[in-house]
TrEMBL record:
<dbReference type="InterPro" id="IPR045462">
    <property type="entry name" value="aa-tRNA-synth_I_cd-bd"/>
</dbReference>
<protein>
    <recommendedName>
        <fullName>Glutamate--tRNA ligase</fullName>
        <ecNumber>6.1.1.17</ecNumber>
    </recommendedName>
</protein>
<dbReference type="GO" id="GO:0005829">
    <property type="term" value="C:cytosol"/>
</dbReference>
<dbReference type="InterPro" id="IPR001412">
    <property type="entry name" value="aa-tRNA-synth_I_CS"/>
</dbReference>
<comment type="subunit">
    <text>Monomer.</text>
</comment>
<dbReference type="InterPro" id="IPR049940">
    <property type="entry name" value="GluQ/Sye"/>
</dbReference>
<keyword id="KW-0436">Ligase</keyword>
<dbReference type="GO" id="GO:0000049">
    <property type="term" value="F:tRNA binding"/>
</dbReference>
<feature type="domain" description="Glutamyl/glutaminyl-tRNA synthetase class Ib catalytic">
    <location>
        <begin position="20"/>
        <end position="339"/>
    </location>
</feature>
<feature type="short sequence motif" description="'KMSKS' region">
    <location>
        <begin position="273"/>
        <end position="277"/>
    </location>
</feature>
<feature type="binding site">
    <location>
        <position position="276"/>
    </location>
    <ligand>
        <name>ATP</name>
    </ligand>
</feature>
<dbReference type="GO" id="GO:0008270">
    <property type="term" value="F:zinc ion binding"/>
</dbReference>
<dbReference type="InterPro" id="IPR020751">
    <property type="entry name" value="aa-tRNA-synth_I_codon-bd_sub2"/>
</dbReference>
<dbReference type="GO" id="GO:0006424">
    <property type="term" value="P:glutamyl-tRNA aminoacylation"/>
</dbReference>
<dbReference type="InterPro" id="IPR033910">
    <property type="entry name" value="GluRS_core"/>
</dbReference>
<keyword id="KW-0963">Cytoplasm</keyword>
<feature type="short sequence motif" description="'HIGH' region">
    <location>
        <begin position="27"/>
        <end position="37"/>
    </location>
</feature>
């Protein structure tokens, strides 16, 4: 938690009415979202929903080389799965579209023309070689090595000479010769001195607009009031503030500079910033493993924010109610996979049994254990199994190993070789034979099954429970770890249970 005093809503809103709040989430269409991007989307969504404002989804696809063919569909699928809904953007429309930057090129060209005409931007004809030579000279002299303003005040004759040489200019923004100061919603007042702020490129020499142009232009035209983004982008913020001021001067947008909040880094192993290449960084992995979206979001919210000092588990509705951007910690947050799984497990325990059973079905179906639309009988078995596993599972994909044995046909059933090697040895043959006899005519209820097996295996054979019930568990489930044994036998049914016990015994006899 930060040490700054709790702000008022007026401090955060800056004179706006709560329902005037407009935030944006602006991913690039490069595939499933990265957990750092998801946290940004989550905080922007919670901020907008807390005040009754709007969240705009904008697709920043001007960096064509990074885009993937299915990137947009993956991005939308990611947000839908997470439950982060947007008010304007792809599939929703809105008054400020189009919402894909590659469809807004004419808008950017028009804005650049106005900036040039107003003298807020200028053409720069410096070659890369010339720029690097001057930067190296500045570095050698111990000076700032950014652009030195060489083309700021070119004469008509100098411009003509460059053009005659065949040089194609970039467009640079004319940065103000004064400090740029802004009040960051997470970090407080931040000042950038003019000697550290160079005129930067808005448009490449081929006429293609760059991110430092299109992002603020879109924010201005879409009337974005608050911008939440990662702290890695903080060095570029004074450039954006300067461009917002220039846009206001030429009449582009509302004339209002958004309030910024720079979110702390998410760190991975080795105290390094979590990258897209790191295991556990991509949303697709969590979807495949069977995390609940509400569990994953709950954990990501904890990477910089908390609902209370003594509470880690909460619903998204509770987060929206309590969210305050000024309570986001500015210190880097470490991604802990074990805690993420524990938070997810807590949300699994919170599900109603019927809901928990329904959420397991897609994973059981993908593994071929159940059809996509289970029969009434299969659903009944699944729901009966829920109380046996809901407190034991951390992710939904664990349902395949935990419950698959209840649904597979005997022809498809197999025993894990490692389990067989460790458990189906020694006295296992005698245990399986005694188990078949004990269960042959017993009433098929959990209580009767337990009583009969305890009498036969513990009292009759003189075995400890582990040695008595381990072979039975492996024989009927195929694994060393399963739901409670006696309840599992009842759910599996007499016919299947006895058949599997006999098959396991026959395998032992066959060597």
């Amino acid at each position: 938690m930060t040490d700054r005093p709790a702000p008022t809503d007026d401090d955060v809103l800056g004179g706006l009415e709560p329902n005037q709040v407009r935030l944006r989430f602006a991913p690039s269409p490069t595939g499933y979202l990265h957990v750092g991007n998801i946290r940004t989307a989550l905080f922007a969504w919670a901020f907008a929903r807390h005040y009754g404002g709007k969240l705009v989804l904008r697709i920043e696809d001007t960096d064509v080389a990074r885009n993937t063919p299915d990137g947009l569909s993956f991005t939308l699928e990611s947000l839908r799965w997470l439950g982060i809904d947007w008010d304007e953007g792809p599939e929703k429309g809105g008054d400020f579209g189009p919402y894909q930057q590659t469809e807004r090129m004419d808008i950017y060209a028009d804005v650049v023309a106005k900036l040039l005409a107003a003298g807020r931007a200028y053409h720069c004809y410096c070659s890369q070689e010339e720029l690097e030579q001057r930067r190296e000279a500045a570095r050698t002299a111990g000076q700032h090595s950014g652009y030195d303003g060489h083309c700021r005040m070119l004469t008509e004759e100098q411009v003509k000479a460059y053009v005659d040489e065949g040089r194609r200019p970039v467009v640079r923004l004319r940065m103000p010769d004064r400090p740029i100061v802004f009040d960051d919603l997470v970090r407080g007042e931040i000042t950038f001195l003019p000697e550290n702020l160079s005129d930067y490129v808005l448009v490449r020499a081929n006429g293609y607009p760059l991110y430092p142009l299109v992002n603020p232009v879109d924010d201005a035209l879409m009337e974005i009031t608050h911008v939440l983004r990662g702290e890695d982008l903080l060095p570029s913020t004074p450039r954006q503030v300067a461009l917002y001021e220039a846009l206001a001067e030429i009449g582009v947008g509302s004339g209002r500079t958004p309030r910024f909040g720079h979110l702390p880094f998410v760190m991975g192993e080795g105290n390094k910033k979590l990258s897209k290449r790191d295991p556990g960084s991509g949303l697709g992995e969590y979807m495949q493993r069977g995390f609940l979206p509400e569990g994953l979001l709950n954990y990501l919210a904890l990477l910089g924010w908390s609902i209370a000092d003594d509470r880690d588990v909460f619903t998204m509705a509770e987060m929206i109610e309590a969210f305050d951007i000024r309570k986001v910690n500015s210190n880097a947050a470490r991604f802990d996979p074990k805690k993420c799984e524990a938070i997810n497990a807590a949300h699994m325990r919170m599900l109603a049994p019927e809901e928990f059973g329904s959420r397991m079905i897609p994973f059981l179906a993908k593994a071929g254990v159940l059809p996509a639309e289970p029969s009434a009988e299969q659903r009944a078995v699944l729901q009966a199994a829920v109380p046996l596993v809901q407190e034991r599972m951390n992710t939904l994909s664990e349902s395949v190993d935990m419950l698959g044995f209840l649904f597979v046909d005997d022809a498809a059933f197999s025993v894990d070789p490692d389990a067989a090697a460790k458990v189906l040895t020694g006295d296992a043959g005698a245990v399986l034979e005694a188990s078949v006899k004990a269960l042959a005519d017993v009433d098929w209820t959990t209580e009767a099954i337990e009583a009969s097996l305890r009498t036969s295996l513990i009292e009759g054979l003189g075995l400890k429970p582990k040695n008595a019930f381990g072979p039975v568990r492996v024989a009927i489930s195929g694994r060393r770890i399963s739901p409670p044994l006696f309840e599992s036998l009842e759910l599996l049914g007499r016919e299947k249970a006895l058949h599997r016990l006999e098959q396991a015994r026959a395998s032992l006899l066959a060597g």
